[in-house]
Each structure stands twice: as C-alpha cells, then as structure tokens.
C-alpha cells in the first residue's frame, strides 16, 4: 500500500472518510491520545480535532502532518506549503532541528514532511558514529563456563554446578561496545525500520543495523532515558542520543493484529513560538549594543510561599542614562485588533508589579492587525504602585513568505524609541 500524507492545520477537525483518514487510523489515534492523557487532540464521534500541538504523526501507512496557521487565508496548497516551510524554519531557529540536515532531507526525499527531516538527521548522526567507531565501556557479566575468570559467585555456582564439577559460575569484566548508549540507538534504529514509509530511509537504516549485530536492544522504562549521562569520551553521541530518545518516547506500537504503529514528533506551538521569538531577539540584539540591550529568558520571582512567576522574556536596555525593563509574553493566538484575554492582561499586570517594569508586551503573530501602542493600566488607590502599561504587539514572522527574524529589529526600535 502506498504511503499517504494527510495535511491539516492546528485546531482543524479531521473526520473518518476525509482525506483518506480511515476508521483504523482513528482507532489507533484514539488509543495514542489516551496514552498521553488526551493532550494532543479532542476525540469526537469518528473525528479528531487537533489542538495546539503541531508536527507529524505517522499511523500505519498514513502520515498526518499538523501545521501551524496564524492567518485567516483560505486552506489551499499554497497556504499549506507556506506553513510547512514555516514550521521547519521555526524549528531550526528554535534549535529543535538542524538546518543542514533539513536541507539534506529535502534534497534526498520526495516526501517533505517533518518526520523524514528528523529521520534523515538521525541517520546522519548514526552513520557518523559508525564511521568513528563505537565507544567501548567496561561492564560486569556472569558466565557459567569451564574457564575460571574473575570472581566466583558461590551461591549460583553451588546451585548450577553440583553435577558439572568442571564448570565455574563467575563474574568478570569485559570491555566492549555492548552498553546502554549503543543499545538505545539500536532500539531507535529498529523503530525506524519498522515504521518508516520512506524506502530510501528503510534501506539505509537496514545497512546501519548490520553494525549493531553484537549489541543488545535496549529494554527498560522510558523514564530511565532521561538519566543517561555523557562524558568527554562520549559527547559526540549527544545528537544521535537525543534523537534516539525522542523516537523511542514517541513510538506507540500496535499490539493488536493490525499494523497501525504510531510514531509522532509533536511540539506545543505556544512553546515553539516563545522559543522562536527569544532566539530571534537574541540574534539581532548585537545591533543595539549602544543601548546595552540584553535579552533574558525565564527569569523568575517568588510570588507567594513556594509559588513563582516566570515571564517568557525580559529585555533590559539603557537610554540617556536611564535603565529600562521590558517584559514580553509571547502568545501564539489569532486575536482581534484590540482584544486580549483578561487572563493575558492579568498575567502581564502581575509581571510589571513584581519585576518593577513600566511596560509589558503581549506579543502575537500578525495577521491583519496594526500596532497601536501601549495602553496604561489604571492606577490603584495604593500610592506605592508605579505607573505601568501593556502594549499589544503584532509581529510578522514572514518576509516574502519566508520566515525571518527581522521583525525583532523593528520591535526593538519601536520600544527604544529610535527610527
């Protein structure tokens, strides 16, 4: 059966029978969503409605690509291609994908969806490790053999060798490549071979698997993967290990008689947009060195007992000898011209008070809005509360339909007050 790509946008509903979405696909997605606490989409009668997560879900021979969308333009091929490229570009900028590997994936694959980008990246990293040679480590093994080697395990020896007096049950050290790092990577390679619909990738990973013949497949609780530590000798494993862990964590095998295995790579679009914005701001901050401009992420303040408040971005700069602080809260929402939610306003109001800032920005993707400037929060009866404001700031992340960081330049110029 030929693989099929189904493209949808975030918050879009997909019904059984639409775009080749089958009942088997629906059942597999329902189980997958239940396994993850229902975080990825809402399940209805023979339909799923996607939420704030974007990326790709491969279910059987179908690949469901969930794209971000901040504009109100119609759903057509041009719009889908635009947002498909935008998602890849934002992931690269945010550090969730490598640009050079993205280019390689697009050059070598007729399918340009996100999963193949990550699989090509993983393939490149694993091939690099194979070429450099697997690192080796000491490990303890127990054997029951005719050769006495290491330390005799008396209990096991008496239990197993009452008849076979010529054998010794011992424990000793071996120095080889059969350890956790290589075992985890082998596990991920097996997953790719099992689920990928890209024949080129299947062939290349099958070739790579030959080098893992004498390495055990990792089996264990997924939570243990976060505790794997690297050292100076194994630091070149970092990229491949990160991708391997990502694939293992997001693989949901089909234990029934069907073949609806699921492999997903999904990102919370709000978190991605926040990361994209802070990376873009830092990229251009050097252009404002004359104002001692600095960009900080996730600075925290104690609010109550053990509760803390953590704004997305804090910007500091100096103008005419006066130091200024700007709080930025990035929101991936399509809102009206002058209509923020009460929750968003209360949030930045609290940030201003706790951090002593005189201005906060609620930062949204631009569709057709205009930046109208700040609105001053109404003063309280308490005289010690300083005057402060909030501005709705809309940024256009595109330049000629290509994702760009240059919106950060105009944002800084506007906030500093320079032309």
How would you explain this protein's 3D organization?
This protein is of the alpha+beta class and 419 residues long. It folds into three domains: 4-133 and 180-269, no CATH class; 137-176, no CATH class; 292-416, no CATH class. Helices cover 35% and strands 26% of the residues. It is built from eleven helices and 21 strands. The protein has helices at residues 23-35, 77-94, 99-108, 114-132, 154-160, 180-195, 199-209, 238-249, 269-284, 342-355, 407-416, and strands at 4-9, 13-15, 41-44, 47-50, 53-59, 62-67, 137-145, 151-152, 168-176, 251-252, 262-268, 294-297, 301-304, 307-309, 313-319, 322-330, 359-365, 374-376, 389-395, 398-399, 402-403. The strands form six sheets. Strands 12-15-16-17-19-18 form a six-stranded mixed β-sheet, sandwiched between helices. A hairpin with a 2-residue loop joins strand 13 and strand 14. The protein is globular, with a radius of gyration of 27 Å. The termini are far apart. 33% of the residues are buried. The model is unreliable at 101-110 (pLDDT under 50).
């Amino acid at each position: 059966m030929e693989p099929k790509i189904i493209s949808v946008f975030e918050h879009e509903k997909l019904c059984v029978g639409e775009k080749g979405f089958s009942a088997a696909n629906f059942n597999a997605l329902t189980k997958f969503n239940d396994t993850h606490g229902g975080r990825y989409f809402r399940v209805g009668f023979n339909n799923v409605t996607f939420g704030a997560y974007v990326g790709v879900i491969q279910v059987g021979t179908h690949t469901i690509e969930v794209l971000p969308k901040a504009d109100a333009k119609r759903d057509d091929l041009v719009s889908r291609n635009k947002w498909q490229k935008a998602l890849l570009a934002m992931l690269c900028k945010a550090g969730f994908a490598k640009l050079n590997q993205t280019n390689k994936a697009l050059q070598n694959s007729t399918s340009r969806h996100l999963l193949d980008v990550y699989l090509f990246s993983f393939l490149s990293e694993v091939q690099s490790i194979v070429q450099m040679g697997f690192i080796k480590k000491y490990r303890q093994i127990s054997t029951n053999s005719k050769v006495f080697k290491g330390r005799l395990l008396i209990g096991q020896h008496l239990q197993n060798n009452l008849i076979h007096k010529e054998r010794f049950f011992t424990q000793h050290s071996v120095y080889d490549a059969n350890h956790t790092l290589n075992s985890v990577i082998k596990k991920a390679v097996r997953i790719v071979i099992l689920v990928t619909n890209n024949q080129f990738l299947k062939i290349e990973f099958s070739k790579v698997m030959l080098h893992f013949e004498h390495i055990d497949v990792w089996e264990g609780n997924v939570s243990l993967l976060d505790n794997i530590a690297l050292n100076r000798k194994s630091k070149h494993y970092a990229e491949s290990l990160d991708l391997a862990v990502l694939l293992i964590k997001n693989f949901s095998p089909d234990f029934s008689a069907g073949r609806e295995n699921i492999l997903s790579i999904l990102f919370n679009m709000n978190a991605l947009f926040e990361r994209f914005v802070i990376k873009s701001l830092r990229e251009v901050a050097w252009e404002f060195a004359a104002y001692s401009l600095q960009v900080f992420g996730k600075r925290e303040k104690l609010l109550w007992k053990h509760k803390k408040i953590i704004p997305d971005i804090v910007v500091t700069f100096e103008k005419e000898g006066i130091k200024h602080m700007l709080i930025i809260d990035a929101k991936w929402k399509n809102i009206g011209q002058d209509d923020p939610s009460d929750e968003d306003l209360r949030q930045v109001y609290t940030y201003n008070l706790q951090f002593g800032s005189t201005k906060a920005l609620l930062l949204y993707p631009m569709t057709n809005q205009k930046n109208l400037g700040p609105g001053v929060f109404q003063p309280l009866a308490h005289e010690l509360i300083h005057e402060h404001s909030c501005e709705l700031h809309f940024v256009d992340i595109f330049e000629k339909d290509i994702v760009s960081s240059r919106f950060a330049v105009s944002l800084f110029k506007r906030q500093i007050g320079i032309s």
